[in-house]
Amino acid sequence: MSVEILDGATIVNFLEDEEAFNVSVRDRFAHLDSNHDGQLSYGEMLKELQGLRVMETHFGVDVETDPDELVRVYDSLFVQFDHDLNGTVDLEEFKAETRQMMLAMANGMGFLPVQMVLEEDSFLKKAVEWESAKLLASYSVEILDGATIVNFLEDEEAFNVSVRDRFAHLDSNHDGQLSYGEMLKELQGLRVMETHFGVDVETDPDELFRVYDSLFVQFDHDLNGTVDLEEFKAETRQMMLAMANGMGFLPVQMVLEEDSFLKKAVEWESAKLLASSSSCSST
User: Fold this and answer.
1) How far is it, in rounded angstroms, from Cα 244 to Cα 247?
2) Nearest-angstrom CA–CA distance, 154 and 173
3) What are the residue boundaries of the EF-hand domain, all occurrences included (predicted)?
């Protein structure tokens, strides 16, 4: 068991990685199939059914349940896996129903992080590990200061291209508007919960909920419930200027996401310095 932080997006993104999900399913099925007959009996499936967290009314909070009710729930769950009702569950049935149940959990959790106690070999733990590996690969340690950000913002062409690219990436349904759900990843990356830039602090989930709601309203200038490109650009500029003012002009070391505006500012500055160096060396 370990305590982890996850949200619905963690699960959905894991499921969308077919290769990672299929490997996890095959490994888990083989682990449960104690007699190696390619089928899971009720007894073999029981540990998996117990780990599905279906008795939680609030994710991350276990509640005491009547044993007879648990038996009925596990019987019902097994039937959901046993699509052909032959009394056993094969690999394809196991994979299909696991996917559906994880999607249901993702929908129930929503997109605000919650803290949960997870079994080491559970699918939820696999989803968290998958996300951690992806995040590790998408972060880098950079040195920047307020001037890095200000100079990037003053290059209208570079900033506008970055804004358009980021907006298109977030606009998952391509309707030209960003919903709260589509904006959430951007809001989480704004580093507003850092009291010292470059140092993350642990924050109460309820406080995060209020902060992200407030930030979304700041972007949604006309309060129509969505954010268009111009609103996104204007508020991104204001928030980056606020970050620049907060950082000052002494360099700090920060861990940045590869596609974040701060990382774009660092890359822009590096490209300018490289071009300047090349120009000087050629004269």
Assistant:
1) 5
2) 31
3) 69-104
Residue in this structure with the two tokens 């733990």, named with its chain if needed: 125
DSSP per-residue string spanning 237-262 = HHHHHHHHHHHTTS-EEEEEETTSHH
Q: Is 178 exposed, middle or buried (0-12, 13-18, 19+ CB in 10 A)?
A: buried
Fold of 140-282: Recoverin; domain 1 (1.10.238)
Spacing of C-alpha 240 from chain mean position: 22
Q: List every span in the chain annotated with CATH 1.10.238.10.
A: 2-136, 140-282
CATH topology of domain 2-136: Recoverin; domain 1 (1.10.238)
Q: 143 pairs with which residues across the strands? A: 253
**Residue 6 in contact with residue 116, Cβ under 8 Å?**
yes
Q: What is the pLDDT of residues 85-121, one digit of tens each?
A: 999 999 999 999 999 999 998 988 877 778 888 888 8
